[in-house]
Specification:
Helix content: under 10%
Strand content: 35-45%
Number of helices: 1
Number of strands: 37
């Protein structure tokens, strides 16, 4: 991979500026970025990273995005952190891959979270999130990660999340545990054919619709 094909920090800032002036979405589709850091900023529209390759981490700390965030088919070589922020629209990570953890703790989402066929090495945290739409996790694979002799368990954290819609984990694979302690789900929880290698934790959870456990596998259910 030639360095000339990798967007510099100046290139990234120029695209943000141009999109603002032209009143269009920020467009990094298919581009190669070394990393992406946005801290305590307000983005006035959509941010599109479909099919991009991020060689380092993505960090949106305390950031407000007044539109959608598209990371479908994106390859993230390290971690993705979007904590204590606001996304007015939907987050799309369908068919993406993250070689580090995905940590969205405490962020408010105005639309759906589409994580179908997402592959993660490390945990996925949606703890303490507020989600106005649905969480789509069909066919997701959350794997343990190994680095320098240390293991990061492939857990899915939904602890204390408030989901207005449904949570769909059909045919998902979670190498660690699914932690839904004190989670509120406004509609249904679908765990049909889900494979959870450790525990399914539902202690204090409130599922207002139906729970589908057809052919789901887990070590123990903790209620």
């Amino acid at each position: 991979m030639e360095n000339k094909n990798i967007l510099t920090e100046a290139d990234i800032k120029n695209e943000f500026r141009a999109a603002s002036l032209e009143k269009r979405e920020i467009d990094f589709r298919g581009k190669i970025l070394s990393s992406l850091y946005i801290q305590k900023k307000i983005i006035e529209g959509n941010l599109n990273l479909e099919g991009a390759i991020i060689l380092g981490p993505i960090c949106f700390e305390e950031t407000v995005i007044k539109g959608n965030l598209n990371l479908s088919q994106t390859i993230i070589k390290e971690s993705f952190f979007y904590g204590e922020g606001v996304l007015d629209g939907s987050l799309n990570l369908e068919n993406a891959r993250a070689d580090g953890v995905v940590n969205l703790v405490g962020t408010n989402f105005g639309g759906d979270l589409n994580f179908g066929d997402l592959i993660i090495f490390g945990f996925l945290s949606l703890a303490k999130t507020e989600i106005q739409g649905n969480i789509i996790l069909k066919n997701i694979k959350i794997n343990d990660a190994y680095h320098a002799g240390l293991v990061t368990k492939g857990d899915l954290y939904l602890r204390q999340a408030n989901v207005m819609g449904s949570v769909d984990l059909e045919n998902s694979f979670i190498e660690g545990s699914l932690d839904m302690k004190e989670t509120i789900v406004g509609q249904n929880l679908n765990l049909k054919t889900a494979q959870i290698n450790e525990n399914l934790i539902l202690k204090g959870a409130e599922i207002k619709g139906q729970i589908n456990l057809e052919n789901a596998k887990y070590k123990e259910m903790i209620k």
